[in-house]
Amino acid sequence: MPRALLSVYDKTGIVEFAQQLHELGWELVSSGGTATVISAAGIPVVDVAEITGYPAILGHRVVTLHPSIHGALLGDVSDAEHVAEMQRLNIAPISLAVVNLYPFSTNPSIELIDVGGPAMVRAAAKNHAHVAVVTDPSQYGEILTALQSSSGIDATMRRSLAAQAFAVTAEYDAQVSRWFSDSTSMLPERMSIHLVREDVLRYGENPHQQGARYRIVGNTSWWSTAQQLGGKEMSYLNVLDGEAAWNLVCNFDSPCVAIIKHANPCGMAVAKTIESAYERALACDPVSAFGGIVALNRTVTAAVAEQVIDIFTEVVIAPEFTADALSLLQTRKNMRIIAAEQPAGGHVHMRSIDGGLLVQETDVVETPVESWKVVSTATPTEEQLADAVVAWVACASVSSNAIALVRDGQTVGIGGGQQNRVDATRLACERAGDRARGAVAASDAFFPFRDGPDLLAHHRVAVIVQPGGSQRDEESIAAANEHGMVMIFTGTRHFRH
């Protein structure tokens, strides 16, 4: 009679599974709560304690850690010496191990660090040539189907189950390691990261590249709960640009719309209504908005949808959509429509390099206006200070070197991704045209020379908000004073590469 070991925390479907195994002629071995549940259902089961000769000890910390259990899982029944030794020690082999682990991630604590469970899973997976290891209730159906067939659980299936089992223990260890690391250092000497694939993408950055979206186990992500309500499958760049767009608009409490191209805003605006915010965001650079990603931090109405469908748009992201708006947007069959929750935010930011990762703290863009320092003779009005906040947040989302011009809550010119700050300034001013007059300019880093402020003054910009910190700050301040401009130092740089 083949033997199965059942030791599970998640008891979903375990009674039905045990009943089916019993009817197929399997002897069931179990422990603790699992044995109690199976026995209460009237299914014959042998308690682990009967095999080991020991009860559960040390507050249930030691139950299955015994040679009679691990010998049964690890014994190579194709090896005559193993078989002889197992017979001498009265160890009957286990052919099926059904084990899932304590839910450490839901309420991490020392007592929820599973020891016996991972040990059994790893033992069974190592010996997959002779043992099938089941780590999730969702696998019960395929196991029963295989057992009821003439071939049983074949070598290919056992190997696949083993691969999933080692992924489970790796994920579990990563959760525990991260919990310990979080309590000591954000950037520990060793960092365990386990990824779960959540979506296979239409393609990568280019159509000849494959792409997929993964989530770090233990982290929450708005992508995990986002609902796609229409359009083609997401591509790599759709996700990358969508991330930038959604994070940007969620920085604001007021109605806000951002239009993103190549991970940079080509238009952004805050307004009293979401309809006005979209109209004004589009007006910043309607040429670049073609084929862009649109994010809105309010419910999309039919009035907004009518504007959106007038221009080719790859993705629309919002908290929700009215029925009329959704119907309108769905007339564009290729447009991806995403309903999203607030971003979860993360403590660290990672980027791949050859053979590894660069890791840093996430750059959180804050606007503590009360700590900003007005360094010019002229002082800002309340309206200008409000625009300075919008410009500062917008600029931090633009690739460096970056300049963002804002007037009345609307970006009117953006220059980014330049090798020098003067070119970024020139681009922003050229795109703004006459709209630069009276605007607020934000710079993601200090001006190394006064040529940038002089150029902004030439285009009649009224306020400059920048980190400060250059050895030539006094020259920039002097330029602001000569031109009657306001200059504000924030003390914080926001490079983005």
List the helices and strands and how they pair.
Blueprint: E1 3-8, H1 14-23, E2 27-30, H2 32-40, E3 46-47, H3 48-52, H4 67-74, H5 80-88, E4 96-100, H6 116-126, E5 132-134, H7 140-147, H8 155-182, E6 195-200, E7 212-216, H9 222-225, E8 227-230, H10 236-249, E9 256-261, E10 264-270, H11 274-284, E11 292-296, H12 302-308, E12 313-318, H13 323-329, E13 336-339, E14 348-353, E15 356-361, E16 373-374, H14 382-396, E17 403-407, E18 410-415, H15 421-432, E19 440-443, H16 451-458, E20 463-466, H17 473-483, E21 486-489
Parallel strand pairs: 1-2, 1-4, 2-3, 4-5, 11-12, 12-13, 19-20, 20-21
Antiparallel strand pairs: 6-7, 8-13, 9-10, 9-11, 14-15, 16-21, 17-18, 17-19
Q: Could you please describe the fold and organization of this structure?
A:
The chain has helices spanning 14-23, 32-40, 48-52, 67-74, 80-88, 116-126, 140-147, 155-182, 222-225, 236-249, 274-284, 302-308, 323-329, 382-396, 421-432, 451-458, 473-483, and strands spanning 3-8, 27-30, 46-47, 96-100, 132-134, 195-200, 212-216, 227-230, 256-261, 264-270, 292-296, 313-318, 336-339, 348-353, 356-361, 373-374, 403-407, 410-415, 440-443, 463-466, 486-489. The chain is of the alpha/beta class. It folds into three domains: 3-182, Rossmann fold (3-Layer(aba) Sandwich); 222-339, AICAR transformylase, duplication domain (Cytidine Deaminase, domain 2); 372-489, AICAR transformylase, duplication domain (Cytidine Deaminase, domain 2, 3-Layer(aba) Sandwich). The strands form five sheets. A six-stranded mixed beta sheet has the order 8-13-12-11-9-10, sandwiched between helices. Strands 16-21-20-19-17-18 form a six-stranded mixed beta sheet. Strand 14 and strand 15 form a beta hairpin. The chain starts with a strand and ends in an 8-residue tail after the last strand. 40% of the residues are buried.
